[in-house]
Amino acid sequence: MKVGFVGLGRMGKPMALRLARQGVEVVAYNRSQGVLQEVAQEGIEPAASPLDAAKRLIPPRVVWLMVPAGDVVDEMIWGEQGVLGGLQARDIVIDGGNSHYTDSVRRAEALAPQGVDYLDVGTSGGLEGAANGVSLTIGGPRGAFEACRPIFEALAVSDGFAHVGESGAGHFAKMVHNAMEYAMLQVIGEGFWLLEQSEYEFDLAQVAHAWNHGGVIRSWLLGLAERAFSDRQQFDEISDYVGGGETGEWGIQEARRLHVPTPLMDLAVNERLLSQAGESFARRVVAALRLQFGGHEVRTR
């Protein structure tokens, strides 16, 4: 199988490399030519534009977009050098980024008259997952999902992907996932802040390690907390500014639309908005965890 892959950023590059290492032929485009030269050494075929990537594929064509949410997704599809110029009926466009689910519905409806299917894919797992296997929630036509099953099998961990519904469902599920993530990060940060403020001189990495071996709250995030605390000098240099938050805010908006109370998610999103107003150990933990799992930018003190 041959796949076009557009966007070789923090997540896109390791995912494209994983596809290639799993035996999938990959034609890739990225605005930074340096990254293209790097992946070319791993057997990935570089393309001059999204359109060029699409034209190099064999029907039925599949193009995976891994770019930031918003107008750039539309540009990669409908722009002068967008993939659509190289596609025809029965081809498939996959958006693996964090697009708003309503944008995914709009794009699917706009492509349908041309016979091009659109799959919205919520991609989770951070940098480690991108390299070693992600979790995928997939929305869109069942037939397109089945046609792309070999791609999902190559990218995901075992049992790590599912067709969750019609167009928009994949990104809706990822939006909720991220809102839940914010709340989980926040409670971990607050718990370790409580330990830090106590009269006991806790080794936070040691506590995280113990909890993560048999404790009820054991988790991958707790393992990342142990890793973050293991280099205390680096942790102490991290500002409590926490970036991101867009998908969490979308989740809160949907909760209000659907009349679902989400007090913990609300508080977690608000903490992010407050992160520029005063020092908070809990927010520093959240920033450190986001650096660990996603390579997200942190500010230093």
Automatic annotation (TrEMBL):
Residues 170-301 form the 6-phosphogluconate dehydrogenase C-terminal domain. It holds the Pfam family NAD_binding_2. Keywords: Gluconate utilization, Oxidoreductase. SMART domains: 6PGD. PROSITE patterns: 3_HYDROXYISOBUT_DH. SUPFAM superfamilies: 6-phosphogluconate dehydrogenase C-terminal domain-like (SSF48179), NAD(P)-binding Rossmann-fold domains (SSF51735). GO terms for molecular function: NADP binding; phosphogluconate dehydrogenase (decarboxylating) activity. GO terms for biological process: D-gluconate metabolic process; organic acid catabolic process; pentose-phosphate shunt. InterPro entries: 3-OH-isobutyrate_DH-rel_CS, 6-PGluconate_DH-like_C_sf, 6DGDH_YqeC, 6PGD_dom2, 6PGDH_C, 6PGDH_NADP-bd, NAD(P)-bd_dom_sf, Pgluconate_DH. Belongs to the 6-phosphogluconate dehydrogenase family. This is 6-phosphogluconate dehydrogenase C-terminal domain-containing protein.
